[in-house]
Design goal:
This protein is an alpha+beta fold. Helix content is about 35%, strand content about 15%.
Length: about 160
């Protein structure tokens, strides 16, 4: 038995036939070929699978695809501009060496983007608390936090310059 799920992924509408038990991470990776969403634990512990659903971060490894029917989903592949220009958070991770093996990076970046949407001026403690659901196996937290704080400062500076 299958069911139809219609959603918008990275700005593109799509309709996919899935089994009712299909996870969002499997839909993204296996049905749509968006392998930037990593699956590390299948239990919502590591955060490598974080995507945005209707603008909020969500762990896709424990979200059923049928739960996002009608939703707008953004994956790590959807952050960069169409011309390949990196999202400011991706650029900050690159500039601040906020990745080592890269496995946690998509989830960290997606969580961090949601954080700055929620709190544009977080403290270091607030960044660390927000990322409690994201695990870096390489223990690169220092540079990850540094990247997020740098991105926040750059975005505030750009906003002030525009005003």
């Amino acid at each position: 038995m299958s069911t139809t799920v219609s959603l918008t992924v990275n700005g593109k509408p799509c309709t996919v036939e899935v089994e009712p038990r299909t996870l969002l991470s499997a839909l993204l990776r296996d049905k749509l070929g968006l392998t930037g969403t990593h699956v590390g634990c299948d239990t919502s512990q590591c955060g490598a699978c974080v995507v945005h659903v209707d603008g909020k971060s969500r762990k896709s490894c424990t979200t059923l695809a049928v739960q996002v029917d009608g939703a707008e989903v953004t994956t790590i592949e959807g952050l960069a501009a169409a011309d390949g220009t990196l999202h400011p958070m991706q650029e900050a991770f690159r500039e601040n060496h906020g990745l080592q093996c890269g496995f946690c990076t998509p989830g960290m970046v997606m969580s961090a983007v949601d954080l700055l949407h929620t709190n544009p001026s977080p403290t270091e403690a607030e960044v660390r608390e927000w990322l409690e659901g994201n695990i870096c196996r390489c223990t690169g937290y220092h540079n990850i936090v540094k990247a997020i704080l740098d991105c926040a400062a750059n975005l505030r500076g750009a906003q002030q310059a525009a005003e």
